[in-house]
Amino acid sequence: MNQKSILLSFVAVIVGLNGLMARDSPALQLSWERDILTITGDQLPGKAMKILYLETYCRPNSQTTDWVTNTVIGHKTELIAINPDRTQLKLKCTLKDGVTVDHVITARSDEVDFRLVAHNPTQSNSKAHWAQSCVRVGEFTGLGDPENPRTYDYLKKSFIFLGKRLSLMPTKDWATEARYTPGQVWAAPGVSRADVNPRPLSPHTPTNGLIGCFSGDNSRIFATAWEPYQELFQGVITCLHSDFRIGGLKPGETKRIRGKIYYVANNVPALLKRYAKDFPEQAR
Fold this sequence. Notes:
284 residues; Beta-galactosidase, Chain A, domain 5
């Protein structure tokens, strides 16, 4: 066996072992209470990550208008079920306009999977165009401050993809003016720039739907994506968003939405390969 064959065999063994280790790792666990989804596991820096889930459902024409009086659609979320090992839970959101959104959230060893069904049972058009899942990443990056939730040190650990390359924040041409500041919004391809968060809006369109950050010791990556998605958003409470798109609902209409949270080793090419498999529409 020549040197190249030996090397390839060695790589194959390592890849196989890593895959086996990933499959054998204990699943992350889930809990939900008072609109906070908590993901726990020894593989997470700080052992847990909290998500405001869901923060709000939103109407269009939101970039320059008042958030409270124009954009927010009131809603109520209830816990429907959780399995004994806390790896899957089901939620139901009921919007004030009558729309319902059923959520099935499933935790595995290095990801959390979201499957949503939005349905409009009413006789009126719904203006529910997008929704916010607010992921708190201060503890994951090691740059949060419990005494100051509005610290922005975590930006230097946070990224999106622009021009087919990973771009750390603040990204190029960082916008600073908007109805509300600070923060940064990147409108998804094909989404009207009038229909996103009223925070500073980047002139650039993301290459893909991933947004994420590196752990404090740079050993791991958190990343999240939704299909379809409305925007990527760096928020004001040590948070990162991939905000999923609904696009409105006609009377009787049903739409399906899916999302992922990844907790993986710091290997960007491997993350992109996995993302392309999970979200082929966006990878194209």
